[in-house]
Design a protein that fits this description.
The protein is α/β, with parallel strands linked by helices. Helices cover 33% and strands 20% of the residues.
């Protein structure tokens, strides 16, 4: 079932949000039994702390939820989300919740209820939340459902999530909202001039493809491009086993743009949306592309292959070149592209490259409202020579290992010629669980972009 908030319900059991400053007054206002219980349990209002409270008959009648200090609360993206898993069955409502935390509390609750149960039954979170006053429940539900879709796609193992299955997910999404999908597959990629997508995917028995989803007939144009490498062995530059273990998530960019597309279509965003997904499996066989090969991209630029494990930027290059043939008002790419981005910012922050200061400013202003942090990285022009090998226009894997995320972004910029371009070098995975954010597949940047789009695409 998709994540849903319950209608406002005065009979729902109350959750009282408490800070250390309001703790003593809150406890004094409780009935004697509940107050004694809270003191006995040493409830301290720490962020994420949840305490069910007994009623006169001993049954759970309410709960306290710790908010902590602002400084402590900043350590948890969804400080109240744990309540969804810790409280017993029934409908609950927040009271005394600051207005600025209501949307975060509702979204965090729905994200906490996510379970990846395709392969093994998981215990669902039994509690439901009544929509807090002053929020848009449909918008919150669309954001949560889009994130659930992204998580499901990333968490599904490559045995069941290859290029064809990713295409199936895009078609299912399109059918839900009346969108259109065209797919170019296998040898037709060469006929239609997508040589880099074909080269990366040709070694696999699972045919490479370009999935092209369109929705909407009026408004500004937004094109999303998501890296869809459904599994990455590294190709002939084979990854060691330890580095290959999480490569089912290498289609995290595609999963994230599909989740964002759900948010946009579910809320009837006033725009013309295009989603391009180059979907491949980077495999090893006699058909694999080789180190030292020079390949010609869709836009005519030549690329020297110095590492077949730097394949994501290749498939994105052809898709970005196609996207720019229509000059969208805003072009966005999302990709699990470089380990260098994780070294720079870790798994929690989404690195973003922007061609205009105004676009990043709008994104940075919106990101906290969506509880989806981003951090700007530079298109540092002095590094351009690092991606120019001499015998071809571009090098897909500059030697030396310096500025790996930046040089990858500069590589993509040669194909993303639209005046306004945002590139997200995401991780797509939570290595450690946190409230509202289970270990496993994760969208990054999608909610921030969803929240920022009214400003980014303002007429």
């Amino acid at each position: 079932m998709p994540p849903r908030l319950a209608p406002a319900d005065a009979d729902a059991r109350p959750i009282t949000a408490v800070t250390p400053d309001t703790l003593e007054a809150t406890l004094e206002a409780l009935p004697e039994l509940a107050r004694g219980w809270a003191r006995a349990r040493a409830f301290s209002a720490a962020p994420g702390e949840i305490l069910p409270l007994p009623g006169p008959d001993g049954a759970v009648a309410g709960a306290l939820a710790g908010l902590g200090t602002p400084e402590a609360r900043a350590r948890l993206r969804f400080p109240l989300a744990g309540a969804a898993s810790l409280l017993p069955e029934g409908t609950w409502r927040y009271q005394s919740l600051p207005e600025g935390l209501r949307a975060n509390a509702a979204l965090g609750w729905l994200l906490e209820t996510y379970r990846f149960d395709i392969y093994r039954a998981q215990t669902p979170a039994p509690a439901r939340l009544a929509a807090p006053e002053g929020i848009d429940p449909a918008r919150i539900e669309a954001m949560a459902t889009g994130e659930w879709l992204t998580r499901d796609l990333i968490n599904t193992p490559a045995s069941d999530m290859g290029p064809a299955e990713l295409e199936g997910a895009a078609k299912t999404l399109a059918a839900t909202f009346g969108a259109r999908v065209e797919t170019i597959e296998g040898a037709d990629l060469l006929e239609r001039n997508f040589p880099l997508i074909h080269a990366v995917g040709r070694a696999s028995p699972r045919a490479p493809r370009l999935i092209d989803l369109r929705w909407g007939d009026t408004g500004p144009t937004l094109t999303l491009v998501g890296k869809g490498v459904c599994f990455d062995t590294g190709g002939l530059n084979l990854k060691p086993g330890a580095s290959m273990g999480l490569m089912k998530k290498d289609m995290g960019g595609a999963a994230t743009v599909l989740g964002l597309a759900h948010m946009l279509m579910a809320t009837g965003a006033p725009l013309r949306l295009r989603v391009l997904t180059p979907a491949v499996e980077n495999s090893v066989s006699g058909q694999a592309f080789r180190p030292g090969d020079i390949l010609r991209a869709r836009n005519g630029l030549t690329v020297e292959i110095n590492n077949t494990d730097a394949e994501g930027r290749l498939v994105l290059a052809d898709a970005l070149a196609l996207a720019c043939e229509e000059t969208p008002d805003l072009l966005v790419s999302m990709a699990t592209l470089t380990g260098a981005a994780r070294v720079a910012l870790g798994p929690d922050l989404a690195p973003v490259y922007a061609t205009t200061d105004a676009d990043f400013a709008a994104l940075a202003e919106a990101a906290p409202r969506a509880s989806d942090p981003v951090w700007r990285m530079p298109f540092h022009i002095p590094y351009e020579p690092m991606i120019e090998p001499g015998i071809a226009d571009l090098d897909n894997a500059p030697s030396g290992g310096m500025a790996g995320s930046i040089t990858a972004a500069l590589f993509l910029r040669r194909f993303a010629t639209a005046p306004r371009y945002l590139h997200f070098d995401i991780y797509g995975w939570n290595p450690q669980p946190a409230p509202g954010r289970p270990k496993g597949g994760a969208g990054q940047g999608a909610r921030a972009l969803f929240e920022a789009l009214p400003a980014l695409l303002r007429p």
